[in-house]
Write a structure and sequence with these properties.
mainly alpha; elongated; 144 residues; 0% strand; 6 helices
């Protein structure tokens, strides 16, 4: 398996449902905020930003859970956990995706930029630590 396909698996582009689950409320909020006429550039920025940040989140989550995921059947074969890519690669991918996402919002207003920084801090601290702090087990995979 080549590196690109491993990176695609790391950021879960092979499982786009997570992007869609984040994209729908984002698009609905844009439509509501614009009285049903969102600027196409704003829609594109938010749609691409949603996909990029979800992907960055997957990479950083795999990095945070790399020692736990080895012991969970559902996650043991993920690229980072299985040793097919290194921890620094997951961090680098997450960082690049986050920087590209931030670059997308540069044409937007200052409040949007400030809120995006706050959102990243909240998501990064709450999401990555909440399951560990309250001792939640990893869910079993859904049957196909």
């Amino acid at each position: 398996m080549n590196k690109l396909s491993l990176y695609v698996r790391l950021v879960r582009l092979d499982k786009p449902i997570g992007i869609l689950l984040l994209l729908w409320p984002t698009l609905i909020a844009l439509w509501i905020a614009s009285d049903g006429r969102p600027d196409p550039l704003i829609v594109a920025i938010f749609a691409l930003g949603t996909a990029l940040m979800r992907s960055a989140g997957c990479a950083i989550n795999d990095y945070a859970d790399r020692d736990i995921d080895k012991h969970v059947k559902r996650t043991a074969e993920r690229p980072l956990t299985s040793g097919k890519i290194r921890a620094w690669e997951a961090l680098a991918i997450a960082g690049v995706l986050a920087v590209v996402s931030f670059a997308l919002i540069l044409p937007l207003n200052a409040l949007t930029k400030q809120l995006s920084v706050a959102a990243v801090i909240i998501a990064g601290t709450v999401f990555c630590t909440a399951a560990k702090a309250i001792g939640m087990p990893k869910p079993k995979a859904m049957p196909r």
